Amino acid sequence: MSFEPLVSDFYSYEAELLSDQEREAIAKLRAWLEADVKPIIGGYWERAEFPTQVMKPLADLDVIRFAWDETKPFENSSVFRGFVALELSRVDASVSTFVGVQNGLAAGSISVAGSQEQKDEWLPKLASCEVIGAFGLTEPLSGSDSARGLRTTARREGDEWVLNGQKRWIGNATFSDITIIWAKDEADGQVKGFIVPTSTPGYQATKIEGKISLRPVQNADITLTDVRVPESLRLQNANSFRDTAAVLRATRAEVAWSAVGTAIGAYENALAYTKEREQFGQPIASHQLIQEHLVNSLGNITASLAMVVRASQLQDAGKLRDEHSALAKAYATSRMRETVAWAREACGGNGIVLDHHVARFFADAEALYSYEGTREMNTLIVGRAITGEAAFV
């Protein structure tokens, strides 16, 4: 399948940095997204339903295994995985979020903190979507302060652990088969991770209704009431919040890529609209102020793409630090927020209806702006790195 560069990749990062094999994989993914996801996703967004029929094709395209699969050097790079996240978000951020949870957070937790036996058992099932995963860290009263403020507890009783507490905003959780639950060990006060089958007695997930952003993502409130899991389902290499942070470090960088993809989706659809929409006897793309919006959008996209590319290159080199991911996430989501607003404005009144797709990107940007670390928290992570002073409280 031939590879056609994105018009929004103004400095040709994709064409220059990816191998022939990687560009072919992107071309296949793009063709499927354009043919099978873009035409239907607006209806699912409006109904707040997730298109479960996309799961098997995503697995067949090997999208789910990219984050953890061991490959030869320079294959399956972080840069390539970033372009996959960008491509998914360029068509729909909710589908991209599903992959991020399934692949980066659920499978990533097992890959980073699981034993070899746990990896062998669960990672192939997650890759094929035979098992759907979720990631339970955020709580009703604990978001940005998860490192210290977790209230969900774990108490060991013999060969079992008893979990009690609540989680909130847990993606995939209304239909997941397992959820990675992070809880504080009552004995030593350290955060530990558990693979919790959602059929376990005492586990309850309730869909969060009334969202205005990422509506197809099935976020849930989770209640854990004396949920018993065996020691064999405790992530054997998760011994403190540092291990949780190791998962988030990699996924935060991919959220930055998703922000770039969301900005591109809004920009490309707005650009197409302005070429077709006529006012005063000519396409509005010929109007100076419309061109200003488009050029400003392209500038934001290009600058953000440069940043996320470099962050992923650092990740491939084993040099990515928390502050690198934090700056990329804070900057890319801020520029995304500006870009989707300009795209909406360029479309006028038609920018607030789903017909032209821009409204969906405009609304979805708000969720990406906040999850995987708010702009404020990521700013403070970078601020600590450059000043040596922690200003979190």
From TrEMBL:
InterPro entries assigned: ACX4-like (IPR045008), Acyl-CoA_DH_CS (IPR006089), Acyl-CoA_Oxase/DH_mid-dom (IPR006091), Acyl-CoA_Oxase/DH_mid-dom_sf (IPR046373), AcylCo_DH-like_C (IPR036250), AcylCo_DH/oxidase_C (IPR009075), AcylCoA_DH/ox_N (IPR013786), AcylCoA_DH/ox_N_sf (IPR037069)
Acyl-CoA dehydrogenase/oxidase C-terminal domain segment(s): 246-386
Domain spans labelled Acyl-CoA dehydrogenase/oxidase N-terminal: 20-130
Short name of one Pfam family: Acyl-CoA_dh_1
Start and end residues of each Acyl-CoA oxidase/dehydrogenase middle domain: 134-227
Cofactor entry: FAD
BP-aspect Gene Ontology terms: fatty acid beta-oxidation
Family, similarity comment: Belongs to the acyl-CoA dehydrogenase family.
Annotated protein name in UniProt: Acyl-CoA dehydrogenase
Annotated organism of origin: Agromyces protaetiae
